[in-house]
Design brief:
Length: 188
């Protein structure tokens, strides 16, 4: 009941920008981050708050410092697995700390996970969305974006958003205004 099919996860990024970003609104992003997300939000004119990453992914301590200073981003955007463009994956301890910070500061996290299923060695990393559900019994702080474009075929343009109930209905209304629904042929 909280999953919306989109025309690729890029459409989900565009929808989230339209819904959550006003001109000048602070948005926290990894540095560097996925250029397509920045392009999707360009017309919304956010003020980007860049956070460093290293071999274990997002520097969660830098985020904690930012939040402790009183800054309240509309959301944090993170590519949690095989980050684009660096390829790093957010370490398990940092994932847990990130979910704890989100709960503590009521921070929305946009988790873009187009590559998580492409794990060739070891086990797939637990999505932040799954950790959010484990902590709260439901999605509360994480908006999860997924796509079939990397798994099956780039031209299919089928993705999805799993979102907290607080914004899900607004995303549905926005999607209906954009294109009514994702093409049925692509979904089959």
């Amino acid at each position: 009941g909280q999953v919306l099919v989109t025309a690729g996860s890029q459409q989900g990024l565009d929808m989230l920008g339209r819904l959550l970003i006003d001109p000048g609104a602070p948005v926290a992003v990894e540095e560097p981050t996925y250029l397509g997300a920045l392009q999707a939000w360009q017309t919304c004119q956010p003020h980007y708050l860049s956070l460093p990453i290293d071999d274990d992914g997002l520097d969660v301590d830098a985020l904690a410092t930012l939040l402790a200073s009183g800054v309240r981003p509309r959301f944090l955007y993170v590519v949690s697995c095989f980050q684009n463009p660096t390829g790093v994956t957010l370490a398990p301890a940092r994932r847990q700390r990130l979910i704890e910070l989100a709960a503590q500061h009521d921070l929305a996290i946009v988790e873009d996970d187009p590559y998580g299923e492409l794990c060739y060695e070891g086990e797939r990393s637990t999505p932040l969305a799954a950790l959010d559900i484990a902590m709260h019994g439901e999605l509360r702080h994480v908006v999860y974006l997924g796509t079939l474009s990397k798994l099956l075929a780039p031209g299919m343009r089928v993705g999805w958003i799993a979102a907290p109930a607080a914004i899900f209905d607004r995303l549905v209304m926005l999607k209906q205004g954009m294109d009514l629904h994702t093409g049925s042929a692509a979904q089959t």
